[in-house]
């Protein structure tokens, strides 16, 4: 007999963990609870789209960074992923703003061309989480954008989002960050984009601290929120997972966060712990400290059921606090 019932706890679909940086043999199942029968009949897990999250330690060496990212993307494709996510600054992390500007390229430059070839070769979509982009106003401003670029499996640019909240902060113990020294804030949000894994809302790193942005993306139809990041080593342990899980729970979206990890150069290190969070707030895949890959299946039926059972978007009171997160552009 098949029991169709209320979902009493999040049904965990295929959850595997792959971190080549670790010594322990990988491909462990993160959550041991069996899937409720009612969910098992709604969709077979191997038909669900698989996404891969890549964790790297970018340095100022662009060619080496490309090699590392390309290896992970090829591995993601071999494992059956339809979409691979790379972190903020996947192209490079420089030692100072002058070097950042020097190493930056336009979207039509050589590096993006290499990623176009890679997407085509592997036949998967790529979220390039934070490209140091020389925009159209480069000649006047001599500043760049922190641009999240989405490529389809033909290597075509299907969307770009330029980070709107710049990280100008001074956290004791972490060293000052002043992104606006080299970077211009993006002018607008980007409507969620249809991909083989679901509708993706684009953001970058520090943007995750602004729930207004995630609400705007969710209200515009996002099913997956993406926060490619290079989180610091002090804010990381304190805030990273809490913020990502909060964004997932309150928007009822999957959250995919590819992260930088380890030491980039003598002055800078990142926290790592890339993860995928499901709309219930469960971390369904995660990397550890080192470079590597983790994978998760995206179950949009589960997302829709959860939104029916817990209809927070129908319970909002914009009459009390305004229509936060509206409109998109
Ligand atoms: O510098 C580059 O090349 C790319 N940009 C970044 O790495 C940015 C600005 S320095 N990092 C963050 O936003 C970290 C946010 C953070 O750590 C937090 O919100 O706690």
Automatic annotation (TrEMBL):
Keywords: Hydrolase. Pfam families: CN_hydrolase. Residues 48-300 form the CN hydrolase domain. Its EC number is 3.5.1.128. The keyword Oxidoreductase does not apply. InterPro entries: C-N_Hydrolase, C-N_Hydrolase_sf, Nit1/2_C-N_Hydrolase, UPF0012_CS. One of its GO terms (molecular function) is deaminated glutathione amidase activity. The keyword Electron transport does not apply. Coiled coil: none annotated. GO terms for biological process: amide catabolic process. GO terms for cellular component: mitochondrion. It is an enzyme of class 3 (hydrolase). Belongs to the carbon-nitrogen hydrolase superfamily. NIT1/NIT2 family. This is Deaminated glutathione amidase.
